[in-house]
Amino acid sequence: MEFQVLLNDVSRQLTSDNLEAMKFLCQRVISKSKREAITDGLGLLETLQELDLLAQDDTAYLCRLLGDVKRLDLRKRVQAFAGPERERLNSPVCETGGHTGCLDDAFDVICDNIGKDWRLLARRLGITDVQLQQIEYRYPFNMREQVMQCLKEWHKMKGKDANIGNLVQTLRQCKLNMVADNVEEQVKKIFQKQHLTQTSA
């Protein structure tokens, strides 16, 4: 409820010029017909929520829009409400090839090693072009975070079926064998550490 109160307050403080500028900036993610139907700030924020571009735990897109239209006062309020981002996945242990490892560790390895071919991997994982555009707009000039968000979207889509084995297989399908090797090496280290812990217990 507090989040909705915040959005209502933010929407009321947007000027007509602010609204038109924000609608213009959203032209890649909101269709023309929907943009034309938006007549006030609340309508825009509701549309962003419908498109999964705005949520209580994900205000990055809104903050970027507010910054782009020079409403730093409103951006500061939204950021203060959101607090430190807690986006790191606390996913359960996943199995692959006799080894065990956490998806978030695999994600870190991929983000650190994939380079310019990350869009190829994202599409192979089922991320749509629209989702890619949204992610790139939310996190401009931050390729690592763009890759991380794509991996999180994949994890969200797959749910319990998301595992490191599928991730490694997709990396190899993209000819990203070195990245796949690095992921498997990290998984192996985790397995060895767990084995030593169990042995010494």
In short:
By secondary structure, the chain is mainly α. 68% of the residues lie in helices and 4% in strands. The chain folds into two domains: 1-82, Death Domain, Fas (Orthogonal Bundle); 100-197, Death Domain, Fas (Orthogonal Bundle).
Report on this model:
This protein is mainly alpha-helical and 201 residues long. The protein has 2 domains: 82 residues, Death Domain, Fas (Orthogonal Bundle), CATH 1.10.533; 98 residues, Death Domain, Fas (Orthogonal Bundle).
What is the strand tally? 2
Strand order, main sheet: write it out. 1-2
The pLDDT mean sits at: 83
Low-confidence stretches: 84-101
**Strand percentage:** under 5%
Q: Name the CATH class of the largest domain.
A: Mainly Alpha
Count of discrete structural domains: 2
CATH fold name of the largest domain: Death Domain, Fas
Give a short account of the largest sheet.
2 strands, antiparallel
Rounded to an integer in angstroms, the radius of gyration calculated over CA atoms is 20 Å
State the CATH superfamily name of the largest domain: Death Domain, Fas
Distance between the termini: 47 Å
Residues in helix, %: 55-70%
Structural class: mainly alpha
Task: Summarize the helix and strand pattern as letters.
Answer: HHHHHHEEHHHHHH
Based on the coordinates given, report the CATH architecture of the largest domain.
Answer: Orthogonal Bundle
